[in-house]
Design a protein that fits this description.
single chain; 438 residues; alpha/beta; FAD/NAD(P)-binding domain; D-Amino Acid Oxidase, Chain A, domain 2; 3 domains; 15 helices; 17 strands; binds flavin-adenine dinucleotide
Amino acid sequence: MSNAEKFDAIVVGAGPAGASAAAVMGRAGLNVVLLERGDVPGAKNVMGGVMYGRMVADVVPEFWKADPPLERVVAEERMWLATPDDVLSVGQRTTHVTHDDGCPNAFTVLRAKWDPWFAARAEDAGAFLVPSTTAVDVLWDDAGNVCGVRTGREDGDLYADAVVICDGVNSFLAKRARLEGHPPEPHHLALGVKEVIGLPAEVIESRFNLERGQGTTIEIYGSVTQGHSGYGFVYTNRDSLSLGVGVLVSHLMRTKRTPYDLLEQMKQHPMIRPLIAGGDVLEYSAHAIPEGGYDAMPRLYGGGVLIAGDAAMMVNGLHREGSNLAAAAGRMAGETVVEAHRRNDFSARSLAAYEAKLRDSFVVKDLVKYRHLPAFADRRPDLFEIYPRLMNRAVHEMLTVDGLPKRDKQRKIARDFLAARRPLQLVRDLYETWKVIR
Ligand SMILES: Cc1cc2nc3c(=O)[nH]c(=O)nc-3n(C[C@H](O)[C@H](O)[C@H](O)COP(=O)(O)OP(=O)(O)OC[C@H]3O[C@@H](n4cnc5c(N)ncnc54)[C@H](O)[C@@H]3O)c2cc1C
């Protein structure tokens, strides 16, 4: 790369956000470079593994017909409330696994396979992917607008009308581009650890009662996080399971536990052990998740610069959504740059259209809806233990046929609840929870 190279746009990071932005701009005929620090996209990226088809299709129309590396199409989603001995399961199994146009609603992926495929679609659209290249700083013009990036390569300054920052959680470039207001606090970040456990496809299908190609997701709240706010998960891949746990960094700092330790114990849970029995650990990884929500978001644009995805705190932890917010925001960032290119105006005022698009979409609407959840989760880790325990005991009581009349059982359950929480505390817990998720 020579000193004076100038592009229409530079995208930093070839995850879901960056690949989406690059694909949209490339397709519109812009001269786009997509920088990725890994040897290949996805080399080090970590995700539980559930992607959402609609946001991918918005970038790569009818992608499901192009032989994408999907692991399994999700047909069943379960939520478990766990104690050390039992789980209370709620969920849905559906035959409606696709939207009307055939686009799969949700599917599992392994990022080491998915990211190269998705980035290749950006290349098909005309973007120029440059792997093994880290952006180490942004460049400024005399008017105070971002006009490029400095890469770690020799003579590696690259210039562009617009830079789209998609470098993931703890974005270094957000700071350099003066978008980050204040550094994230420990309760704005969760730490996720994950193992991929290999098992034959038939074994997975039999253990999860699945048809070929179909998958199950299980989110596990309660004892598996051992008093930390967060949850565990088990997702089915073609011939492996993705198993992990993610909890708030602020709680890990207090308890001095490691998430690896939590994961090891989760694997011993009597309902999880049989699911993974006989499997080989193929992969272990750990990664931060930006869960600070709306109030912890950076500024989303400036002169010559936009930011999308994890780099901008766009994760909806409650619904286990991040990749889709990233892809949607990346697409909108790309569209904004295309429009700015037509006007030949990359000023902050011109790029403000990006924030307007985001505010009008599910991305910011959902983050606003749950804006008080991060602080609540930080304040009330006890809820992650108390209620799964009480609810399991209540259901167990009602399902135990021991000659005790049902009304007496109900009284026993009520006494159990009141022994754990006074009536006012129960009402307050319910009200506070409702307030943050309504
Ligand atoms: C344990 C765990 C489980 C999760 N489970 C789910 C799930 O099931 N479903 C879901 O939707 N979301 C999930 N998420 C969240 C999801 O992974 C992210 O929200 C999503 O990957 C964000 O995409 P992104 O493109 O913004 O960032 P990333 O996917 O992190 O991509 C950033 C890219 O930028 C590159 N990069 C970084 N710095 C530089 C630099 N300076 N120069 C060049 N390249 C750079 C990185 O190598 C990477 O390729 C999970 C996250 C974790 C950690």
